[in-house]
Every structure is written in structure tokens, then in C-alpha cells.
Design brief:
Layout: E1 2-5, E2 20-23, E3 26-32, E4 35-36, E5 41-42, H1 47-65, E6 72-79, H2 85-95, E7 102-107, E8 117-124
């Protein structure tokens, strides 16, 4: 059975998608961008500040669904340029100090609202 997950502690979906969907013990979190849910505005700063906001958004959704970063099995990190990989990786690694999930990271031509990073996440209980 499919369950839609939504929290006010992460940015609302800005299109025809859900923040997250849980099905059969697996949580699929839509790509998160560095938007502050309290202000509804983008965090327009460097890659480390933007990645920190993205990870906070992911954490809020995980928490709402009853999961934690320990349950994450796969992440996909989209970057505006591979030059941002190191800064993103520095922040990302703080959230997974042990047994990090599988991950793909690559640069794309353009991200929504011209952000520097977007991360989607899959977690399993």
C-alpha cells in the first residue's frame, strides 16, 4: 500500500509530486533543493550551505515518516557542476558517519531554480 508523506518542516512540493512516498517499508524521498521551509525562500549561498539545507529537509521528511539517516540505503546527488562535489561531500559525510548508503553523484545541465545541489533519497525499515 502506498502512503504519502508530507511535513511542513520541509519545502512543499512545487509540482505534481509528493515530498515522499512510503510503500512496503521503503521510503522514496523526492529530490530536495536548498529551500528553507520556514521562509519558502532558497538558501542562496555556497555549496556547503546549500547542501546543509538539503540535508535538513531530508531529515525532516525522514523524521515525519518515522525513519532516520541510519535507514537510508541510496542517495542520488545532482550537482550544477562537479566543482561542487567536494563541498557537497564534506557536508553529506557528516550525516552518514558510519555505514553510508550507496550513492550516485553527477553534474547535470541545470537544476530547478538554478540551485547548486539536489538530493533524492531512499530509506528502508
Amino acid at each position: 500500500m502506498k502512503k504519502i508523506i508530507s511535513t511542513k518542516n520541509a519545502p512543499a512540493a512545487i509540482g505534481p509530486y509528493s515530498q515522499a512516498v512510503e510503500a512496503n517499508g521503503t521510503l522514496y524521498i523526492s529530490g530536495q533543493i536548498p529551500m528553507n521551509p520556514a521562509t519558502g525562500k532558497l538558501v542562496e549561498a555556497d555549496i556547503t550551505t546549500q547542501t546543509e539545507q538539503v540535508m535538513k529537509n531530508i531529515e525532516a521528511i525522514l523524521t515525519e515518516a518515522g525513519y532516520s539517516f541510519k535507514d537510508v540505503i541510496k542517495s542520488t546527488c545532482l550537482l550544477s557542476t562537479m566543482e561542487n562535489f567536494g563541498g557537497m561531500n564534506d557536508v553529506y559525510s557528516k550525516y552518514y558517519p558510519e555505514n553510508p548508503p550507496a550513492r550516485a553523484a553527477f553534474a547535470v545541465k541545470e537544476l530547478p531554480l538554478s540551485v547548486l545541489v539536489e538530493i533524492e533519497t531512499i530509506a528502508v525499515k
